[in-house]
Amino acid sequence: MDIARFLSIGFSAIFVSNFVLAKFLGLCPFLGVTQRIKNALGMGAAVTFVMFLASFVTYLLYGLVLKEGAALVGADLVLVLKTPMFILVIATLVQLVEMFLRSRVPALYDALGVYLPLITTNCAIMGVALLNTTDAPEELQRLGEENFLEGLLVATWYGIAAGLGFTLAMLLMSGVRQRLVHAGVPEPLKGIPIAFICTGLMAMAFLGFAGML
Amino acid sequence: MTIVLTATVAMVVLGVVFAACLALASRFFAVAEDERVAPVLEALSGANCGACGYGGCRAYAEAVVAGEKVNLCTAGSDEVAARIASIMGVEVQAAGRKRAVVHCQGGTSLCTQRCDYEGEQDCRSAHLTSGGPKACLYGCLGFGTCAGACPFGAITMSVERLPVVDPEKCTGCGVCMEVCPRDLISLLDVRYKTYLGCSSRDSGKAVRNTCSVGCITCRRCAKDDPNGAIVMENDLPVLDYEKAGGDFSVAVEACPMNCYVVEEPALVSAAAGSTHSGEST
Question: A181 — contact with chain B (CB < 8 Å)?
Fold first, then answer.
């Protein structure tokens, strides 16, 4: 696996197929905690961390337990256990993050509020787990068959890059929304509606990256 | 059948492993929270306004439990202080409730405009647009940003386009103080009724040209005040409320521009100390 391929996976996950602005995953925290740049960054960091560990653990579980002919079990459990097992992993990780923030960064814990436990059901994280395993592009699947460790590395890197892309989108959006507060937005469009319109415009701008890879 | 069995076993094993991890982590990240923090937080207003000097209600609640004074929540006033004091089992220190006062009286009829302004109807925007439309660069711009920011609805805009603070509704949280681009609002103890209604540091001539109720730095109030409680600082009189017990009646009379605002004594509670009758200038 050469470094250029690695970079292109990262670039693709952050810009070209950004989880929020190209795949439209994880819109709930994207609109929920982007009122302030500081909170948006905290949320981005929490999601990136969960994505990183979740993609690592789920790929491991997929290869060792779920897949047909897997090392530990053998039976094809993908259809039956895919969703519950991944959710179990993600929920555990979110609990971990929640405990950490509560004891170490209580201000951020308060600011994120209900959106912190809601990372569990953030579709972006389930999305990255599925895109790494059952819904992976053929190339990655072949890579996983040939060399499990390299597949694990790519999957983990994809998780980190997806998290970074999410953080970037959060950061851009919070910057826009901090300025929107002082802008003369027509009454019916104030708040969430104008945020959605901005999201659409930003997504169109991100389409420009599509030609680069 | 086997698939059900393997699936169940796999999930149980995984669940036990993760539970063990979380149990271990909870040891590391245990929050040793005083059980009094939660009820104190409950008693606070929850506005997170920051007037107490802490970054939000939770931070203040923790500080209270750690020994901070119980009467710092200006938004909740005496009632909240009493409740917190009962939780903490201490006496309430006499709280001086504060309200916001506006240091500008130059309404539309008294202070001139130097240009038309058609931008964003917000004081902060107008202030950034080379100082806004008002001839006085220190005076109230009158777009009501403070009124919009007040979380308690205590500020209304008069026909003169000046903010009017309802001292009954005002909790002294200081949010309006933060948003005013010209720093015209300050917090004053409700016992004190006299304050300066001008913030202009311009020369006397410049003030006379633009505004008929502006401070022209004549220093008469400082000279005439019998208690010596007024000193001139940066061309504006500064009032020392402790010294004179808030009685500035001589200075109010002396001011040739009627810069001082004296609120109606009807608003004073019976317990308040020295006040004086006077017309609102």
Answer: no
